[in-house]
User: Fold this.
Amino acid sequence: MTTIAVIGPGAIGGTVAAWLAQDPALAITICARTPLDDLRVETPGGVITARPQVLTDPATARPVDWVLVATKTYDVESTKAWLDHLVDAQTRVAIIQNGVEHVRLFSHLVPPERLVPVMINLPAARSAPGRIVQSRHGIIAVPAGRNGDELVALFAHTEIEASADADFLSQAWIKLCGNCAAIVPALTLRATGPVWSEDLETIVRALVEECAAVGRAEGASIPQSAVETTIANFRNMAEGSTGGSIHADRLAGNRMEIDARNGVIVRLGSKHGIPTPMNKVLVTLLAASGSPWVR
Assistant:
């Protein structure tokens, strides 16, 4: 039996854990701050439930075959106590987080050759501990190779489509191109579609073009069609829609992943000598909004 520990049973971690728990060949452990009785996820195909082992004290954890980290990017250091007990010489660690710096963020905690960055597109929202609504089927991409291929195999009995990609870097940056413009509805607290204008399109286009330019400098292949698709998605965003987790976190008064989604564009742009004025301005404005944030 393959043993898997999931650190961070929020919307993403809880949904992934519930799906994996449907396979009797996998033994799932949840690593949480507070106890929960079970997992119940409303998926597009119906409700799934699971009763994995739940640990709230890192000292009670034992080494597993796989660790799946599904915390926010600003909570990396909080995973150390868990990783110290869950990881041995054979354990692989999958990082299911936003952004493009998965390995850099965890390489001081786990040997880089055992880290697997994960790009995930899984729209889900948590209403209470262990209670999640998954609004669309999920997609996961990981780097091709032994570790990535074996992680993909874990999802064979789920409805989450997992694949290993020889050009994972491009997949991660293309997703960031789609995510970086979500800073606009996070600032305005309005869906972009109903208030769309030429001026708003100029802002969204600048955010995404800056991201694409930096991603290309980092070695990613980002077609112009990815930029145009993102702009079209924001142009057509319906009233009541949100900009994803960053918008939801601001509404809830939670800390936001600003650095992983827009700050990284500014930082890496500076490294390559690429101007990123629109991302820098909106990061500064969101920081000044009074909401918790990461630099």
The mean pLDDT is 94. Residues 198-217 form the longest helix (20 residues). Residues 2-166 form a domain with the Rossmann fold fold (CATH 3.40.50.720).
